[in-house]
Amino acid sequence: MTKKFTQSNQMFKKVKQVIPLASQTFSKSYLQYVKGQAPLFVTRAQGAHIWDVDGNEYIDMINGLLPVILGYQYPAVDKAIREQLNKGITFSLSSTLEYELAKLLVKHIPCAEMVRFGKNGSDATTGAVRVARAYTGRDHIAVGGYHGWHDWYIGSTARSLGVPKSTRALTHTFKYNDITSLKKLMARHKLAAVILEPMNYVEPQDDFLHQVRKLTRQHGALLIFDEIITGFRYHLGGAQKLFGVTPDLATFGKSMGNGMPIAALVGKRKYMKIVDDIFYSFTFGGEALSLAASIATIKEMERKKVIPAIWKKGKYLQMTVNKLLKQNGLEDIISVAGKPCWQVFIIQDARNSNALEIKTYIQQELLQRGILWLGQHNMSFSHTQKDLEILISAYKGILPELKKLLDNGKLTQALRGKPITNIFKVR
């Protein structure tokens, strides 16, 4: 049965009149979906499935852009939230849950000796940069990944409109796995910090992370790992535990709350103590529902060995899809990269079609088969083997047709709506 999106399309017309972009998040907006042929609004979610306003059900391979690590409406987490709701949400004094969660983070994360909380990843990364500037007395920052929406970072991207030139001048980008590009920055600027995602979908090569650690020590700059994605997904102790490289500061978010809004800035005591003197303060920093959810999430991950289970399911899916791509002669155009817990489709331009058109075609066909997809496999503990087999079956139907369309130069005609749009590329 062909899925219809009548209610989504009608609601979009109304919503965009009062909400810019008709969404709170670029990556959840209409720009990321084939125009007119995709769901734009959700009504509910359970496990690894969601339902849109037209009543269509999907296996969700996005999972809220990675925070939903256990699954939607996960019993142990929802129970903790409901119990805390009966006690209160935001108080006039600090909650004891702040200490309980901080101790859990210190237990698992190698660099964590002290902890402060925030509500999103940008809170934590901005806090880390401010700590580094205060500690070193320097202003310049080197960035190697995506680090949020605040001025100090976003000014270094194509989305810099509204950021003062004076702010933009203090942030400098370097290429991941290119130690020479970082050395050149360090030769030109006295850096307060180097902040990077320790891994995205590209593996660190040639001891890259160890080399960055050595360089920052030599130049008196702090090393900050942005573990908003890797934390509590790659390992309970983050990528720093996985790769054996300990930064001075690190930021966590997304998976640590299973969908609740919470982030953390952690680090060595000698750096974190300066938080007493800078301004890193939020009315909702100690909001208790999110703290309770995070504690429950991490304890559940400890009890049920969640991360190894996600890696196992993800490895099976990743290997199978890459095998299908090869069988269909598409391996030179498409590959599924990254660690099994977070896989990313790397799509190249083909002779007659560009990468965004190819991605759009795969998306529109997956949507019709009941799969919500943004070019990634964001694995959750609630994805079942049946879910994976349904997804694999969908690829088995789509990839041969994609190959034919590319060979015949007819992919563009097969698109049922306007192709999706790149926001900006940082990974």
Automatic annotation (TrEMBL):
Name of protein: Aspartate aminotransferase family protein
Q: What is the lineage of its organism?
A: Bacteria, Candidatus Buchananiibacteriota
**Which domain of life, per UniProt?**
Bacteria
Q: Which family does it belong to?
A: Belongs to the class-III pyridoxal-phosphate-dependent aminotransferase family.
Q: Which UniProt keywords apply?
A: Aminotransferase, Pyridoxal phosphate, Transferase
What cofactor(s) does the depicted protein rely on? pyridoxal 5'-phosphate
| CDD domains registered for this protein in UniProt | OAT_like
Molecular function via GO: pyridoxal phosphate binding; transaminase activity
